[in-house]
Write a structure and sequence with these properties.
Length: about 375
């Protein structure tokens, strides 16, 4: 195979972008051969934007069974991600899944189990921020070990502003039955993935969620979560969709220094000249103050700052290029599909903690979460 024939399932916001990039030849080694959408109006829009060679389907199974595609990109409402990926993989078609991997861990585990039975196929997740050069640099720093053991992680990401008209634009948005949640399922999966990619999975979560606090929706639009890591480190995530001005500040504190990321574009790396543990064991109070105020002739830490402007489209394009290379040459995936469950599990733990009013240990109880989610879906259905 010298060209990957790709089909896009779902010609909505992201499906439109993926189709455009592939159709315009921006992804070397990949061609757009088909588009699938259950909405005839979206198909007509696609026909007006894409090459005449593209074929159209109203059922993803028909597209996969047609023999016209070698790979699919799944860009539909969240609940359908696993079922479509499973069908593709079971029928010999490579699959790229938009975030999140699914709504509940039990469903995602089923998808991962099918993928593990087909190692000859490429299964990827659209975690585009793993292709952000800024976070690639942070990943290198974390894997080098120079920061030392993690002590504390904090991320305030309130720059996901969404208006009421955004939520009203589609009946499935911001519903338990259609989307499976709010900011944790729609916007914040990027941060949840980056958190675990850079610092590992937490072992315990206690979360406080507000449901429809500033929007006319049933799901969460405001989240404050505390978590702990296996080594005793602590963390906090704050996110919402009602802050028009928005804040994006991410800090990772280690034994030997600190990383500060502002607006996902500016990074400050501060490295202690001696580990905090060593300083704590050797300095008395006067020596500590003298060092802090620069009265000893020594520096407490060195500092490096660099900026990398965020390019949202290019990150998606780079994930698609990586996916194509993995199919054609066996190149390793930056965002393997099997890793998608980690962000889902963190989000599900936050929901469980809020619903049950207690700390939740990870890994979560898959059946308990699904049972509680089904209650929310049923309550929503009865309210109409």
């Amino acid at each position: 195979m010298d060209k990957v024939r790709c089909g896009v399932i779902g010609y909505g916001n992201m499906g439109t972008s993926h189709s455009k990039w592939i159709n315009n030849g921006i992804i070397p080694g990949m061609t757009l051969s088909a588009v699938c959408d259950i909405n005839p109006e979206r198909i007509e829009v696609a026909k007006g934007n894409l090459d005449k060679s593209v074929e159209y389907f109203d059922d993803y199974r028909k597209m996969i069974d047609s023999g016209k595609v070698d790979a699919v990109i799944i860009a539909v409402p969240h609940y359908h991600h696993p079922e479509m990926a499973i069908y593709a993989l079971e029928h010999g078609v490579h699959a790229m899944v938009e975030k999140p991997a699914g709504v509940y861990t039990k469903q995602v585990k089923e998808m991962n189990a099918v993928a593990s039975k087909h190692p000859e196929l490429v299964f990827g997740m659209m975690f585009n921020q793993r292709m952000n050069p800024l976070y690639i640099k942070l990943k290198e720093i974390m894997e080098s070990g120079k920061l030392g053991n993690i002590r504390r992680v904090t991320w305030m990401i309130t720059s996901w502003w969404r208006t009421q008209k955004y939520y009203d634009s589609s009946s499935w948005r911001a519903t338990w039955g259609g989307e499976g949640g709010g900011v944790l399922m729609n916007q914040a999966p990027h941060q949840l993935d980056l958190l675990q990619w850079l610092t590992g999975m937490p072992s315990m979560i206690r979360a406080y969620l507000k449901y429809g606090s500033h929007r006319k929706i049933d799901v969460e639009d405001d989240v404050t979560a505390y978590f702990e890591y296996p080594n005793g480190a602590t963390g906090c995530l704050i996110t919402c969709t009602h802050d028009a001005m928005g804040t994006d500040r991410f800090e990772i504190l280690g034994d030997n220094g600190k990383i500060i990321v502002e607006d996902s574009s500016k990074v400050t790396v501060k490295m202690l000249n001696k580990s905090e543990h060593e300083l704590s064991e050797t300095l008395d109070f006067r020596q500590m103050l003298a060092l802090i105020h620069g009265q000893t002739g020594e520096k407490l830490y060195t500092e490096e700052t660099f900026s990398i402007p965020e390019n949202w489209d290019q990150q998606h394009i780079d994930v698609l290029k990586n996916f194509t290379d993995a199919i054609l040459t066996g190149k390793a995936l930056v965002a393997p599909g099997a890793e998608g469950i980690k962000a889902v599990e963190i989000a599900d733990a936050m929901y469980l903690s809020s619903w049950l009013g207690k700390e939740i240990e990870l890994p979560i109880d898959d059946d308990l979460f699904l049972s509680e989610l089904e209650k929310k879906v049923e309550e929503e259905r009865k309210r109409g």
